[in-house]
C-alpha cells in the first residue's frame, strides 16, 4: 500500500535561482534554498520515492490537468520573467501510473481531470524551482499538477486533493506532496517596483499582517479556522493561483479534520511584493 509521507507549502520565486548567480542577489535567498533541501531530506528519511507538485504557474482555464509523462528533460526559459530564468536545464523521471490514477479517481469523483503524456508539454517553474534544489538531497520521480485555476472552485480542488491521497494509497509509492506557491501574491505595480526596492519588500502591509496570522494558525494547528477564511484570503490578499495548490494540499490531508501543527522551515520573507515561506505539514 502506498503512503503520503510528507506535505509542504513551498516558495518558487525566481530569485532562488538568482541567489546562486553572480550579481547583487547572490546569497540573498539561501534560507529558502536551505528550506527546500531540508524538506527533501525529511522526505528521504521517510522513504519518499515520488513528489507530486501542485504548480500555481501552470494556468488552467477548463478542467484539471496533470503532466504524467515518464521523463522530463530540457531547457526552460520563463515567458513571464525571461530575464530571471533562462536556459535552466532539467532532467527528472516521472510517474505516469500515479498521474493516471489521480486523474481517473478525480474524474470518477466528479472533477474532470486529464493526465497527459507529451514530451512537448512544458513543465512550469513552480515545479522546476523546487526540484532544482530538492534533487540535490534526494532524487524523486515527479508528477506535476496544474494549480493556477481560473474558473474552478476550492471545493473542486479539495476533491482533487482527496483523489491524490486515494491514488497514492492505492499504489505502492511513498510520496511527498508539495503545494508550490506563495501566500499573498500582490506583485508591485511596474511603475512602483524600483522605487520600493521591490525585490525585497511587500506591496501591502495588510497582506503581510494576514500572511503572518495565517502562519500562526498553521503552526498552532488551527486549520479548520483557516479553511473558513481561505477563499476570502485568496481574494483579498491575491493568493497565488487563487490558492488552489493549498486547497489541493488540504484535500489530501483531510480538510478541516486536519489538526497537525506545522513547522516553518524558512522564515517568512517578502519578494517582489509577495509573501513567501516554506512550511512542512506533517501527515496524520
Automatic annotation (TrEMBL):
Q: Which domain of life is it from?
A: Bacteria
Q: What class of enzyme is it?
A: oxidoreductase
Q: Which residues form the Extradiol ring-cleavage dioxygenase class III enzyme subunit B domain?
A: 7-281
Keywords associated with the record: Oxidoreductase
SUPFAM superfamilies for the chain: LigB-like
Any GO molecular function = 3,4-dihydroxyphenylacetate 2,3-dioxygenase activity
Q: What is its EC number?
A: 1.13.11.15
Q: Does the keyword Mitochondrion apply?
A: no
Family matches, as InterPro entries: HPCD (IPR011984), Xdiol_dOase_suB (IPR004183)
The protein's name is 3,4-dihydroxyphenylacetate 2,3-dioxygenase
* The organism of origin for this protein: Albidovulum marisflavi
Query: Lineage from the top down?
Result: Bacteria, Pseudomonadati, Pseudomonadota, Alphaproteobacteria, Rhodobacterales
Amino acid at each position: 500500500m502506498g503512503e503520503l509521507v510528507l506535505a509542504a507549502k513551498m516558495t518558487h520565486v525566481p530569485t532562488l535561482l538568482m541567489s546562486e548567480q553572480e550579481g547583487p542577489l547572490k546569497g540573498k535567498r539561501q534560507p529558502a534554498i536551505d528550506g527546500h533541501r531540508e524538506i527533501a531530506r525529511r522526505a528521504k528519511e521517510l522513504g519518499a520515492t515520488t513528489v507530486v507538485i501542485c504548480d500555481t504557474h501552470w494556468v488552467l482555464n477548463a478542467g484539471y490537468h496533470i503532466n504524467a509523462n515518464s521523463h522530463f528533460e530540457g531547457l526552460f526559459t520563463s515567458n513571464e520573467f525571461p530575464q530571471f530564468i533562462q536556459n535552466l536545464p532539467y532532467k527528472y523521471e516521472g510517474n505516469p501510473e500515479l498521474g493516471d490514477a489521480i486523474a481517473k479517481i478525480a474524474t470518477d469523483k466528479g472533477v474532470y481531470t486529464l493526465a497527459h503524456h507529451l514530451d512537448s508539454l512544458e513543465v512550469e517553474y513552480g515545479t522546476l524551482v523546487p526540484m532544482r534544489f530538492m534533487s540535490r538531497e534526494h532524487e524523486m520521480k515527479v508528477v506535476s499538477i496544474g494549480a493556477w485555476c481560473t474558473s474552478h472552485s476550492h471545493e473542486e480542488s479539495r476533491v482533487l486533493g482527496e483523489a491524490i491521497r486515494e491514488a497514492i494509497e492505492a499504489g505502492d509509492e511513498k510520496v511527498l506532496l508539495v503545494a508550490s506557491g506563495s501566500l499573498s501574491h500582490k506583485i508591485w505595480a511596474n511603475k512602483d517596483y524600483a522605487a520600493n526596492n521591490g525585490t525585497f519588500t511587500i506591496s501591502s502591509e495588510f497582506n503581510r499582517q494576514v500572511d503572518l496570522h495565517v502562519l500562526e494558525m498553521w503552526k498552532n494547528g488551527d486549520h479548520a479556522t483557516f479553511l473558513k477564511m481561505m477563499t476570502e484570503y485568496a481574494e483579498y490578499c491575491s493568493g497565488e493561483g487563487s490558492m488552489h495548490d493549498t486547497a489541493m494540499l488540504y484535500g489530501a490531508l483531510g480538510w478541516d479534520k486536519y489538526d497537525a501543527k506545522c513547522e516553518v522551515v524558512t522564515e517568512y520573507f517578502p519578494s517582489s511584493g509577495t509573501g513567501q515561506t516554506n512550511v512542512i505539514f506533517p501527515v496524520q
